[in-house]
Amino acid sequence: MGVQTWTFIIVGFTFLLYIGVAIWARAGSTKEFYVAGGGVSPLANGMATAADWMSAASYLSMAGLISFMGYGGSQYLMGWTGGYVLLALLLAPYLRKFGKFTVPDFIGERYYSNQARIVALICAIFVSFTYVVGQMKGVGVAFARFLEVPFSTGILIGIGIVFFYAVLGGMKGITYTQVAQYCVLIFAFTVPAVFISLQMVGNPIPQLGMGGTLSDGTYLLDKLNMLSTDLGFAAYTESGMDNRVNIFFITAALMMGTAGLPHVIVRFFTVPKVKDARISAGYALLFIALLYTTAPAVAAFARTNLIQTVSEQPYEAMPPWFTKWEGAELLTFDDKNNDGIIQYVANPVVNELTIDNDIMVLANPEIANLPAWVIALVVAGGLAAALSTAAGLLLVIATSISHDLLKNYLRPNISEKGELMAARIAIAVAVVAAGLAGMNPPGFVAQVVALAFGLAASSFFPAIVLGIFDKRMNKEGAISGMIVGIVFTSIYIWYFKPQLGGPGTVEGHWFGISPEGIGTLGMMINLVVALVVSRMTPAPPQSVQAIVEDIRIPRGAGGATH
Q1: Domains in the chain, please, with CATH?
Q2: Of 218, 478, 514, 549, which is least surrounded by CB within 10 A?
Q3: 317-342 pLDDT, tens per residue?
Q4: Taking the model in full, what pTM does it have?
């Protein structure tokens, strides 16, 4: 059977699995819709958290970026991995003990203010929507190539799938669907990596294979360095960090943005106790590490095979995968000198090949001539990664509107049935809007996600950290900091992102800080403003200060409330 047939079989099976799980675990109450009833086991929650965490950016785009950036791409590995550790150790247990299962709810209660709740709600929707746009782009990339449909059609298919199981199941359905999605995505990511590692260096462990030797006796990375420099690119293992300030700011934004991501934080309320939250955080870190330690090897394998396949080769001799990615408009060949030979070089004047970074993981098994079922498996994994995170983000948007806005602000007396209906309507509207925005995203998947992390860092991170560890932090300080932080970061991103209509250029970046890293500066501004304003205004009530003291004492279950 061909790749497309296998794709229909494997992807179709996984979609039926997700839909079946969503029906089995559909939510019947608001508590099941928001926090899966609070009864998920630590192991299952660890898998669900890992799937929620490892989005299309982790599965599709991170290895793709590393393929082209080489060692410089480590900023994404360091930022996202370090950020999860920061979240798991510094914030999650305390937020779990506080007992509020959404970030706006925590901020509204901690800062004794509906105004603070509304500001946090707007930030949560803004961050989550930006993030989910990246996931929809990943869905479109996968469907466009392997179902051989236009990119926009691929996104529309993804909208339909997410719409069904997120609207029906809520957090309960999403949690158990994400357990299935984690199993699919980790199997799909590691199997082709093992195949290619064996094929290239004879070692079945990709992490070790990246440092192995090829059949001619040269080290894989030495070979890749030579291939890269021959084409005018920097050596693959060189840092390429001309601007270390920007690298630091991007890494820090990814870390602190992680700790402020509302869709990950809410996962720690789906387990019965604080102890279970800590255990599930450990499981999730283990499950995440399986993919994150494999990604650099996948990147090196893909880059080596790509260069050897296309560089200085006749266009007519290209294998079928090349022309099919061309058909998806994610790879283009412009024969500038009309000689029919592909010139793939660093010099943009001479270069004739343009490759979307996000196709590298999906194209990797095809370039390596792996069996058709392995290629189809990778597609299923990419879709699992994108859809699992998209569902979690959409739930954040829904809960922010139905619970934080309607229940806690506009209509306190709304019935549970009415609140549940409002949440489902909010998800339905959000998934359609995100899909439409994903048709023209402001960058590669990982870059779009990096923007979302920067927005989270500049808005939520200081408010959450100071809310836990600073008794003197009051509502005036938190509100001022969040507003200043996210407004500054949003304007900077808009100004320097032509895709968003901004007029700026790379040369105009402040201190060389790119839009992907500006969230760190926004966070610093937020922190300073919050501390200064809080010290110039009245201290919080004693009851609030007592709560801050209490949540740092490791006792009690801290059951989620609403």
Answers
A1: 3-318+320-326+328-333+357-551 (1.20.1730.10)
A2: 549
A3: 898 888 888 877 778 888 888 888 99
A4: 0.79
